[in-house]
Amino acid sequence: MPMLFEKIKSEILAHNSYIVGAGGEAAVIDPRRDCRIYASAAGRENMKITKIFETHKNEDYICGSRELARPTGAEILHGSREAFGFGTAVREGETFRVGPLEIEVLETPGHTAESISLLLRDRSVSDDPLMIFTGDALFAGEVGRTDLAGEDRRREMSEFLYASLHEKILPLPAGVIVCPAHGAGSVCGGNISDREYTTIGYEAATNRLLSMDEEAFVEYKMGEQLYEPPYFEMMHRLNRDGPPLIYSLPYLRAYSAREVRSLLERGAQIVDIRSPTSFAGGHIPGTINIWRGGLPLYMGYYLNYEDPIVLVDDFNLDLGPVMRHFVRLGYDNIAGYLSGGFAAWFKQGERMERTGTWSPSDLAEHLDDPSVYILDVREIGHREKEGHILGSHHIYVGYLEDHLAEVPGEKQVVVHCDAGFKGSLAASILQKHGFGHVINLLGGTIGWEAANYPLVKA
C-alpha cells in the first residue's frame, strides 16, 4: 500500500511541517497557518486528513491546526502538560491509527513543558518504528532551546530535555528517521545543521550535545545565549489559547502616496522591503527597512499587532509570499502597499530621507576619526566567532531600540552587519529615532575581509 510522506518547509523561518498518510487517511504534524497546501497534498492522493498533531505550542509562528481543522473536520491532538484552549490532550503511550499507519505519543518535555514526539510505524510493513517527529526536542546537529519557560525554570527544563533525549528518543533503533520541526536558521535552536534528513544513529554518532553527560549538558544549556524576539510572547499566548481563524489570506489594498502619508501621520507602520541600496538612495521619512528575506526574522522585533502595516517596494512584484510571512506570525493588521511603488512617492513630490553608505575603504580611512562611532549589529555569536572591526561597539539589531541611549547622537554613526541588510534595518531604526548622521557599511564584515582589512578577535 503506497504511503504519503511530504515535508513542507516555510522558508526563512526554517519551519518544517509534515503530512503522512496511507489507506485513504492522512495526518498533519505542526501545520502552518496558511494551510491549503496540506489539503492539496492529501487530495492528490485521494486521502482525507483525519488527525492534526501539534508537537508543542510553538513560539516563532502561529500554529495552523485550528485553521486546518475547520475545512477538514480533523481532530487536533497536543501534549497534556499545559492547558490549551482547543484540541484534545494526549499522553505517553497513546496510539492513533491513520489507515495502516500507527502514531505513538512520547512525552518529551524540555523545550516546552507539553512537548511531545510522535513515533510512526507502518503496520502494513513492519512493527518496527520508521520515523519520529521530534518537534523542537532534537534537530539535525542540535537540540532545542530550554530558556523559553523563564530563567527560573531553565535548569529544570534542561534536565527534562536531557531525560527526554536519553530515555525516549536515543534508545530508538539507529535507522529511525528523525523529522524535526525546524531546520538550519531557526531561532529555536543554537546551531542547527543544514541537512534535509537525519537519523537516530547519525545524531547519536555526530551530535556533540548527545555525547555529554547530564551535568555537562545542563551546564551548557544554562549558559547558552540565544535571542528571544519580543513577538514570542504573543505566539505563546495565541498558540495556547487558540489563534483566530482567518479563513482566507487577507486582501492587500493599494494606497496612493497621499493616503500613505496620511496613514503614517496616524501611526501606521510603514515597512520598506527594498534593498539596502534602494533604501539608502531615498525613502519615506519614519519608515523602517526590512528586506524581503529578513521579514520573518525581524518584523517581530519592531512591529506591533494593532496599527495597520503598509509595504513599500519598487515594483510591487509577487507580494503574495511577503503577505504570507506576516500571516504566519499573526500580523493580521497587514493592510496594503504603496500603489505604484516608491516611484509614486517621489512623483507626488513628497519629502524623502536618505541614509549614507560607505565602502570598506571609506571606513578604513576613518578608523581613527573620533567623530565616527562604529556600531556592530550582528548577533553576538558572530562577533565572538568571526571577530570584529577594531574600535567597534556592539548592540544586536533586534535590541537596538532598547539601547538607543548608548549610541552617541552627536557622532557620525557607521552601522555594519555581515553584508549590509541588517545594517540597513539598524540605520532605519536610528534615523527614525532622530539620529541625523547615519551610514550603512555596504558589504559589512564580509566586504571588509574581502578588501583585505582585518577583523580582531577578543
Structural write-up:
Keywords: Metal-binding. This protein is α/β, with parallel strands linked by helices and 458 residues long. The protein has helices spanning 36-44, 65-72, 154-169, 200-206, 214-223, 232-241, 257-265, 276-281, 295-302, 320-328, 342-347, 360-364, 380-386, 421-432, 444-450, and strands spanning 4-10, 15-22, 25-29, 48-54, 75-79, 88-90, 95-98, 101-107, 116-122, 129-135, 138-139, 142-143, 177-180, 198-199, 253-255, 269-272, 288-289, 309-312, 334-338, 356-358, 372-376, 393-394, 412-416, 438-441. The protein folds into 3 domains: 4-241, Metallo-beta-lactamase, Chain A (4-Layer Sandwich); 253-347, Rhodanese-like domain (Oxidized Rhodanese, domain 1, 3-Layer(aba) Sandwich), CATH 3.40.250; 356-450, Rhodanese-like domain (Oxidized Rhodanese, domain 1), CATH 3.40.250. It has a 6-stranded mixed beta sheet with strand order 1-2-3-4-5-6, with helices on one face. A 6-stranded mixed beta sheet has the order 7-8-9-10-13-14. The radius of gyration is 24 Å and the shape is globular.
Key traits:
458 residues; alpha/beta; Oxidized Rhodanese, domain 1; 6-stranded mixed β-sheet; MBL fold metallo-hydrolase; Rhodanese-like_dom_sf; Mito_Persulfide_Diox; metal ion binding; Metallo-B-lactamas
**CATH hierarchy: architecture of the largest domain:** 4-Layer Sandwich
Class from secondary-structure proportions: alpha/beta
Uncertain ranges: none
What is the class of the largest domain in the CATH system?
Alpha Beta
| Helical coverage, percent range | 25-40%
GO molecular function: metal ion binding
Keywords: Metal-binding
Domain Rhodanese: 264-354, 368-457
Organism: Methanoculleus palmolei
